[in-house]
Amino acid sequence: MSSNAAMAETAALVGDPARACMLNALMDGRALTAGELASVAGITAQTASGHLARLSAAGLLAMERQGRHRYHRLATPAVARMLEAIMMVAGGGPPPARPRRIGPADAAMRNARTCYDHLAGRLGVAIADAMAARGQVELATDGGVVTPAGVEFLTGLGIAPDAGGSRRAFCKPCLDWSERRHHLAGGLGAALCTRCFELGWVKRVPASRTVLVTRAGEAGLRQAFGIELG
Amino acid sequence: MSSNAAMAETAALVGDPARACMLNALMDGRALTAGELASVAGITAQTASGHLARLSAAGLLAMERQGRHRYHRLATPAVARMLEAIMMVAGGGPPPARPRRIGPADAAMRNARTCYDHLAGRLGVAIADAMAARGQVELATDGGVVTPAGVEFLTGLGIAPDAGGSRRAFCKPCLDWSERRHHLAGGLGAALCTRCFELGWVKRVPASRTVLVTRAGEAGLRQAFGIELG
DNA sequence: GGCATGCTTCGGCATGGACCGAAGCATGGC
DNA sequence: GCCATGCTTCGGTCCATGCCGAAGCATGCC
């Protein structure tokens, strides 16, 4: 009975066109700002704010503040699965996975750059994805941990995992500006970045945060992470 | 965009407490009458009627008229999957699969009985389920077909499949009164019923539609269909 | 400090839709 | 034929909620 009410409540949240629009825009796992979501839904910021608050309260969205922006993303994979199941019934079929482009205009910078002391852009996100997919790190919103498999992998790369008590701060997710997804920051991100420079896999573009992946880097990244940057 | 609207519309249908209640009651695949659904939702018949019309129009439910009753059930497995996914997010966990009991009060009659010229009750539904699960028949609302594998199976049982042009009428689903699910009717259902009597698997209770499964029947049904009637 | 930007809260309006009472069709049983 | 039952359609009420304008906090840039 209460199960009925909970189901209805959740479904009703998805049942509003504006909210459905926003959720749909988040289907690819990226995080978008409240303003962007208001824009895609075609409503004003204040209306969107109310919707986002309700979606977060119900556990459909997770929010992360970064400066004066608030980034929203789907709270769990279960939410994405639910939305997909609804679309299936609605006759829309599987999601179209449309390519949207926002963020830094410079293509090279979007591809790979430094963010403070670690790698960001497509390269940074790809490294984080690869390590997470292989169970080498486990990322959470508030922090992350390096698994035993990850320690072994890092050692093989020539990176000494911080054995001290600062394990938690060692692996920290950071929201990527252009990709709107997490990449690795913290001590781990810094160490990976440093090592990539040492190995000659990437090199800096003068007077810029942009970095370029070298020929050796393409091979090395492919071998180490299974990464293929188009 | 239109995909968004369709998703919102579908979700909104589930988003009403009364409708969610009705859909939930249908989660186990049974078919219930409009009156029963109104009752479980705690609303009047006329209100339920409106809800059911909308759910059917949207393709969430399928309707089947039998006498002056109208039986409603989930239109496709995709709808059940969607509801389950929503419940997952709503925190209700997987559906409880509650056992509800309506229909004939007589336990033996609920277990097995004849329906016109074929078997019904738990036995009839179990036979239909078993044959469908094994790909021996393919059941649709308006009719069904016996597959080549089904022909072979029936031959082994000593039943000659009707080789004439009346194949379609040969295999016909019939909505079970107590189980609220389909069992096999038509020529196939009649033949199966006759053969079960011939083999001594079931015998009639005098002056009643109720039939009893014999000891030989328990063994035979288990071997032929993999059926285990608790 | 002052200003701009991003987001939230508050108040009031308006539309949508859930609900029921009453009446209208079907179907089945007598 | 009649009546009972199950369901639907129609009409009207009422509440929930989505929406925006205006104002109020935060944060970042100068």
Automatic annotation (TrEMBL), chains A, B:
Residues 1-94 form the HTH arsR-type domain. InterPro entries: ArsR-like_HTH, HTH_ArsR_DNA-bd_dom, HTH_Metal-responsive_Reg. It comes from the Bacteria. Pfam families: HTH_20. CDD domains: HTH_ARSR. This is Metalloregulator ArsR/SmtB family transcription factor.
